[in-house]
Structure formats: structure tokens, C-alpha cells
Amino acid sequence: MTRAVVVSESAPASLREVDDSFLRGGGEPAPGEVTIDVSWSSLNYKDGMALGGDRGVARILPLIPGIDLVGTVAAGDAAGRFVAGQQVVLTGAGIGETRHGGFAERAIVDAASLVELPEALTPRRAAAIGTAGFTAMLSVLKLERDVEPDAGDILVTGAAGGVGSIAVALLARLGYRVVACTGRAELTDYLHGLGAASVIPRESLGEPGKPLQRALYAGAVDCVGSTTLANVLAQTRWGGTVTACGLAQGSDLPTTVLPFILRAVSLVGINSVEAPLSLRRTAWQRLSRDLDPALLDSVTEEASLAEAIDLGPEILGGRIRGRTVIDVRR
Ligand code: NDP
């Protein structure tokens, strides 16, 4: 039996004991499945939604939430790509949404999106990176294609959140001058500590503005969407690139074509969930190289499996700073 957080139709999230058949979602064992002794998971915005039973994320019920997991292979796949004892990491790919996820001591997952843990990363640090850090890296990979570090300032919105914090740290380490946008002025020192050169208030971008504004940024990583993203596009210089991964302010985008046709701005979408295996490997290798481990540790909090349940409303309320790892054995 496996200890797991389970959300069901009739009951709020709670700790339960489940068997392998439950972990598999019923049915027979599949040739591509890999059984993992999970050591760490992490808390993401989507996990907050799943913990609350939000059907936008919790596509099946009952569901074990947790869109990230790190652990050791207990039983490999039939093709032999994974063997017992290997350390692995899995983010997205439907876990914690359409199939059971990482808030459990054991998981049975599909080998297709599973990545070998890079040697330079400990399991705890890989979980601290998790979907948020992986998404930040996907954003950086797109940004650096078109924007050199000396091209000008890079804006990060939702900067004190999980994706934002790691994007700030990565970009600063790569030599970009980072401007962090946050609604939490009290986290200014925290953002400078991650490498932000300056910090601006959320209100400066949150209200509707003109379709073209003073061109301030060579690029941006946007975690917020809505009016904020429209203003970011309006403030991006000729030829700049803006990545869009999030919707913390809203899923709308009240903009015009003017930034695209008058300033040749590129808007690039980021989707971490369905990233192909080759991109996953590239991103994890880059994360193991480009992210300062001490800095990562400094933005990481830890919680037990039971404590994770109470953190759902906290991340949905924007009260979590940086990253929280879940010690599923505790
Ligand atoms: P967090 O909750 O950790 O961070 C979100 C941040 O957004 C907050 O910390 C806050 O930053 C800011 N924010 C919150 N509410 C508002 C608001 N009303 N207006 C403006 N800013 C706001 O979440 P994550 O970092 O994990 O995820 C960020 C976003 O990216 C989420 O929308 C998430 O769903 C999405 N996401 C998408 C992925 C993809 O594959 N496309 C993968 C991972 C996440 P601050 O306190 O600094 O103001």
C-alpha cells in the first residue's frame, strides 16, 4: 500500500492508503509503464487548483495531485529504457491532472516523458526546479534564440512566484539585465538576491494602457497574461521576444496587432506539459548547468505530504514565495 494525497468528488483532499491498481488508474499493467518510488514532489499553481478539486486541472476524480515527481525506478518499462535503481524526474505529461501524480510515495507513470536525472542535480533540487523551473528554462531557451544579453533589459512578470523566481535567477546568471515586476514590494530584497537589477510594482503594468508605449525592454518572460501581457508587448523594443506561459492575472489578452507589425515583436507560447522528450532532456541539462544550486536552495521551502494539503489555498492566493518541495516520505 502507498500513502498518497487523494482528492475525490465527495471529500476534500486527504491522506489515504492506496494500492498499485489505484495508482495505475485501474486496468492491466501497460508495457510502457514505470513504477517509481517517489522521493520528492513540489507545489505548483496547478497543484493548488487540483487540491481544491478544480476540474480545470483535476480531470479525473479521485485524483492524486502533483504535477511533478522525482524518485527512483522500482520497476522499469518493458523496452528496458529504464531499469530499477535509476533516478528520474517527471514534470507535466498529464500527471496530477489526467492521471495520478507525485503527492504519493509511489507512482506508476508512462516512460515516454520520463527523464534521467542529470548527474549534477540532487533529487531535492530537481523537485525544487519542478514544472516551474522547467517552464522558466523553456522560456529562456526561446528568449535567448533572438535576444542577446547585451540587447537590453529583460522583464519578468509575476517575478516572486515559482516560474518568475527561477526565470530571474537563470537570466541574471546568463548575463541579462533583469527587471522584476512584483505585487509584493516586501520581496524586493529577495528579487535583488536572485539577480534582478531593478524591481517595478505590479500596478505599473496591471491597468489598460496604450497599444504602443515607450519601448523599454528587449524581451520578457510573462507569467501573468491579461492586461499585464498587453502592456509588456506595448513596451517591448523593435525585434524583441516575449514569452507567455501563465495567466495569474487572467487568460484574456486585450492587445492590438501594433506591437507585432510596427515593432516586429514576437510573442512565443510556452507549454511545459506536452514538451517532447528531446526538449525535456535539453532543458534539464541546461537547468543543471545554468542554475546556481545555492540560490535555488535559498528560494526553496519544504513541506510534508500532509502539510501540502494546506498549501493549496496559499499558492492560489499568491502567498507562496519561490518554490516549495514536498517530502513525500514525511
Ligand atoms: P505562482 O503562484 O508561484 O506565481 C504566480 C505569480 O504571479 C505570483 O507569485 C504573483 O507574483 C503573480 N500574480 C498573482 N496574481 C496576480 C495578479 N492578479 N496580477 C498580476 N500578477 C499576479 O505560480 P507559478 O510561478 O508556478 O506559475 C505562474 C503562472 O504560469 C501560473 O498562471 C501558472 O498556471 C502558469 N504555468 C504555466 C505553465 C505552462 O506550461 N504554460 C507551467 C507552469 C506554470 P508576484 O508576487 O511577484 O506579484
What's this model, at a glance?
By secondary structure, the protein is α/β, with parallel strands linked by helices.
List the helices and strands and how they pair.
Layout: E1 2-6, E2 14-18, H1 20-23, E3 33-43, H2 45-51, E4 68-75, E5 87-91, E6 106-110, E7 115-116, H3 123-146, E8 154-157, H4 162-173, E9 178-182, H5 188-194, E10 198-201, H6 203-206, E11 217-222, H7 226-234, E12 236-244, H8 258-263, E13 266-269, H9 277-290, H10 293-298, E14 300-304, H11 305-316, E15 323-327
Parallel strand pairs: 8-9, 8-11, 9-10, 11-12, 12-13, 14-15
Antiparallel strand pairs: 1-2, 3-4, 3-6, 3-15, 4-5, 5-7
The structure holds NADPH dihydro-nicotinamide-adenine-dinucleotide phosphate (NDP).
Q: Can you put this structure into words, describing what you see?
A:
The protein is an alpha/beta fold. The chain has two domains: 2-117 and 299-327, Quinone Oxidoreductase, Chain A, domain 1; 131-269, NAD(P)-binding Rossmann-like Domain (Rossmann fold), CATH 3.40.50.720. It is 32% helix and 25% strand. It contains eleven helices and 15 strands. The protein has helices spanning 20-23, 45-51, 123-146, 162-173, 188-194, 203-206, 226-234, 258-263, 277-290, 293-298, 305-316; strands at residues 2-6, 14-18, 33-43, 68-75, 87-91, 106-110, 115-116, 154-157, 178-182, 198-201, 217-222, 236-244, 266-269, 300-304, 323-327. The radius of gyration is 20 Å and the shape is globular. The mean pLDDT is 97. NADPH dihydro-nicotinamide-adenine-dinucleotide phosphate binds at residues 44-46, 131-132, 135, 158-164, 182-184, 202, 206, 223-224, 228, 245-249, 270-273, 315, 318, 320.
